[in-house]
Amino acid sequence: MKRKLALAIMMSFTTVGLYSAPIVVQAEEVKVNDALAAVVASDFRTDTNKLRDTYRNPAQTLAFFDVKANQTVIELWPGGGWYAEILAPYLAKNGQYVAANFETKPAEDTRQTEYFKAAGLKFEKWVEDNKATVGNVQFVTLSPPEKFKLGEDNSADHVLTFRNLHNWAMKGQLEGVFNAAYAVLKEGGSFGVVEHRANIGMAAESGYMEQNQMVELAKKAGFELLASSEVNANPKDTKDYPKGVWTLPPRLAMGDQDKQKYLDIGESDRMTLKFIKKAK
């Protein structure tokens, strides 16, 4: 179902390799192409994942990022594959889905490396088990601080990340990830970001990030903000919970305590930002 959006879009146009001042454009709706709509609605997706669509708006989000079926798209840390379940089949025939996966061969065994290893291997198995639908998925390893490189420089049309920025920020690795995204993208390629949106002054340990700080960090890496969308906004999210963003669904870190209260709020308020790699 189409959803009305309020977008604040800053569009830049190239003239002899230079970007002019951004133009602010108001748009009422993002158009979802038929191929993307069909994948989002397909029976390949699990019912559990589809239940999250009301909060994550995958068709509108990917249309906002202008992801086309014949492009090369790198997803950073696909985790359990919520977006991979859409992106990989969508790109299988004419495009290329690249999973920047967890480290599955850690040099040392710690609680964290074992967690990432298990999750990464589970995702690889899902890809192998569903090869007929997801096609020839490629893998790179994103394992800061040792492994940042996402592929050949200037090779990807889009780099996408969904609700991951706080993980890298808490370890001081966020700038390296932004730089890696910039390096792998073609000129004119885009970096699409969905992240839990903080109130000013909140710490990254809450799971929320300040939107203006993310914009400034992207600019430092060389990006220009092309567009922002409120498609994944949630005004019910007060962001003042005992266990940070994880208090809300789907994690529900408080268990049964005030469970219905948090279910009624729904998933977090999220920024949705589209950055472009400027020509130099």
Automatic annotation (TrEMBL):
Extent of the signal sequence: 1-20
Keyword vocabulary terms for this entry: Methyltransferase, Signal, Transferase
Source domain of life: Bacteria
Keyword Transmembrane in annotation: no
SUPFAM superfamilies xrefs: S-adenosyl-L-methionine-dependent methyltransferases (SSF53335)
MF annotations from Gene Ontology: methyltransferase activity
GO biological process terms held by the UniProt record: methylation
Protein name: Methyltransferase
Organism of provenance: Shewanella aestuarii
